[in-house]
Structures are given as C-alpha cells and as structure tokens.
Design a protein that fits this description.
The structure is a single chain. The chain is of the alpha/beta class. The chain has a domain of 164 residues: ECO RI Endonuclease, Chain A, CATH 3.40.580. Helices cover 39% and strands 17% of the residues. Strands 1-2-3-4-5-6-7 form a seven-stranded mixed beta sheet, sandwiched between helices.
Amino acid sequence: MENKNYDSILNECIDKTEKLTISDKKPNKGTGSEGSNKIKTNKGTGAGGSNTNKNGLPYEKITELKNEYTIIDSKKHYKKIKFNNSDKEFIIVKQSGLFKYMENKINKDIVKAHGCKNPDECFIDELDKRIFIIEKKFQQTGGSVCEKIQTSNFKIWQYSRTFCHKYKIIFCYCLSNWFKENCKAEIEYLKFNKVPVFWGSDENYKKDIVKFILNFEKNQKTEENDIRVENSDIIV
C-alpha cells in the first residue's frame, strides 16, 4: 500500500462505499411497471450535497497525522501528543472535541457560526497560545466546493473572538489535487492572505505540515524581518 499515492487509495475507498450505497432502492409511488421499478442512486463520485460526507470521510482518515506523533496522555475529548523528534507538547482535538476542550475558554456571548464548529484536525499549542486548524476538502468533479475555500479569513476572525482573542488562530487547508486546476483564483487568494495550502496526495504531505507547525514561530520571525526590509528606506 505504501507504493500507492493517496489519491488512488482514496478512490478505492470511495468505490467501495458507493457499492454499498447504490443498492438502496425505493419504489416510486406512481402506478405502472415503469414507476415501480425506478431505483434511487447517488449522483456519483465527486458530487456535492449528500455525497460530501461520504467522499470527505476517507480523505480525512487518509490524511490524518497520527503516524507523525506519540500520544502521551489521552482523555475523553482530546489527546496530549508530541510530534516525532520533538519535545514540544500539543493538544490534538477533532470535530466537536475543540469546543469541548475549550469549554472554559469560550466567550459565551459569541454566536456560533456555520462552518466554525467541527474542524477536521486541530492542534493546540498551550505554551505559545496557538491553535492550528486543518480543514480538509476532497473533490473530483465540479460543484460549489470552490466557494468553501474562500472563507478562511472569516473563520480566523470567528475563532479568534470565540476564544476571547487569547489564542492565535492558524488556519490551513489540506486539499485534493482537483483544486489545483479548478480553483486557481481561490488558491491565489489564499496565498495572498498567507493561508497555508497543503496537498493531501503529496508524498511528503504529513511531514511538511508537521514541519510547518513546529517551525511556525521561526517562520513568522523570518517573514516579519523580510517585511521590515521591504518597507525600510535605504539611505546610501
């Protein structure tokens, strides 16, 4: 299985899922042989709506970072971990676990926003007060999914005020290769706003995103220094 790329493994998972769901048959309420023989099938791989969760779940599992860290403590809604070859501790939460873990650190006056409740994968750095949120999107055919990766700035704003502006929110995307050719403007926008995009099918995806998390502070200082140089007046 190690020789297969993530997209091929993912497609196999989806095909197996579709074979299980395509057998759901419902007779048409109309009369006649034609009406009674109609079969309700799904819209196929990559379709939106009801297929979003079916397609998303295998991708979320395949791109999990669980092989890149060691669990040092486990609780009901979260785990304390250390990434391989690192001594720094992080809290990992998934889906509703984020708000359950942060229950006592939430501004209760902030209304919950759509799409800001259940992150696919989330790492919390309690020492430096940073929350790394990884949102994963898989797509194979056309749909409204491009619009969904336009919302990063809103989500950063929403999470920041929800957690009383005490944590820096670092929002990342893990995307399937479909987005490279079909959502070019959105990818350019994310790059402009310094929202990291990782490609789940890349061979080094997991190691690259772990490296990004561990080196975040160092990279931030480098970027700040570069900005100072660009904005400074050079006197000869």
